[in-house]
Design goal:
This protein is mainly β and 485 residues long. The protein is built from no helices and 37 strands. The N terminus is likely disordered.
Amino acid sequence: MLAAIGLVAVLAPSGGVSYVERSAGLEQPRMERGNTEFEFADVNSDGWLDILSVGDHGSPRINSEQQGIMVWFGAPDGRWTLFQTGNFGYGGIAIGDVNNDGLPDVAFGVHHNYSSNDFGNQVLEVVLGDGTGMNWTPWDDGLGLDGQDWGMFGTDFADVDNDGLLDVGSISFGCCDGLHVYRNNGDGTWSRPFGFLGGNSSLLFTFAEVNGDGHADFVCAHQSGTVWFGDGAGNFIRQDTGLPGVPQVGRPGIAAGDVNNDGRDDISFVNASGGVSVYTWDDGAGTWVDLSGALPSSGTFRFTQIADMDVDGAADIVAINTAAATIYFGDGAGGWTQGPSVVLPANCRLLAFRAGWDADHNGFPDFVYVAEENCQPFTGGRNRPRFFAEASQPKAPLLFPVSPRGGETFRAGGVRFLRWHAALTGQPPPVEVALSLEGMNGPWIPVSAAAVNSGVFQWRLPRFLPSTTNAVLRYRMAGAEAITP
């Protein structure tokens, strides 16, 4: 077991934030209505984040132009360029490297598994990428074949058994296909150590690490429970003690992230009054503790995200309703101060929201959402994605470690995602990542000599790593260096 405890101060900008819309290219393809999920990832390894989805109810090509895996490629000029492939859709998506070849792969859970071939004919699939973001090869034997006959949706990757291979989890599309976690056998086959059918869901699912044991947990919007602790062998138990009662369709707007800088993920969600709630797990007391404080206790919010939007080292809450996306700045100790609100173009319903990724390399996180616009009585409108970038311009290269940031427990031999923001004034240079087990002065063990500067690196921890509380990570690129705090 490797406990990553940082030792030095943040090397990053901080201050007020403002946002500008940069959605050119996202107007294609023509979407329809219904829920969807959007994720950021650099699937062509050019250093610029892309946006991925498998679309809404109109995919594939049902009163729309959507189909299969949709990639909007990012570029330094802020425009998005669409490429899509496959005959399926309407669901959730996740990105990671499942076969450890260094290339991004994709998992998706869908309701419209309409394909006549192996690419998209199951409600849950994993496909291998070739590094272009345009070609995908099914790697999915055994997925979604445990009684799921309606559809899956929110999907995520984590190494649930710390064997060095990413596993996959997914939640039902509404009722009644339940929750399922599948272990990656490393050969294109998958086995299910955990899962059940039944119950309603609000479609959201994400892996997290809540109780500090270094094993993957997950949080979800399911009627049967919100938080599930993993044992490192692929088994999970519900742990909702101290949380309000679970709504009939699961807890809406659920998200995970570390709001109090203890190295453990906390949760945010939309409460029964439409306000925003934040809870942290107290391992000693065995209960969830309310950290909502000055957050709005009521409202009309639809989604929440936990992300350090002002890059001050303390996570913030971003909550969105049809009127605006509002930031509530955190102080790292459970205190909240309302920040700016970004007024949204007129819409009648929100369908997806993702914040916390720096797509334009100015060093500050951005956000993307999908809303139903041009709404008409009885007939409704059409979904439209929009991307908002933080508006400041970088004056010099800077690196900011996002995760880990200190206090996390990493298991030797397992897979974890390292995240950072990089403020750049040109093309993204590679990032050198190194590990010290003895504090900020080294000696340094290479992690990656030249990681793609997309803000995320999938790290397969060596099995030889000893237990330590002095581990830090160092990030270097041309003109900048940072060490995890």
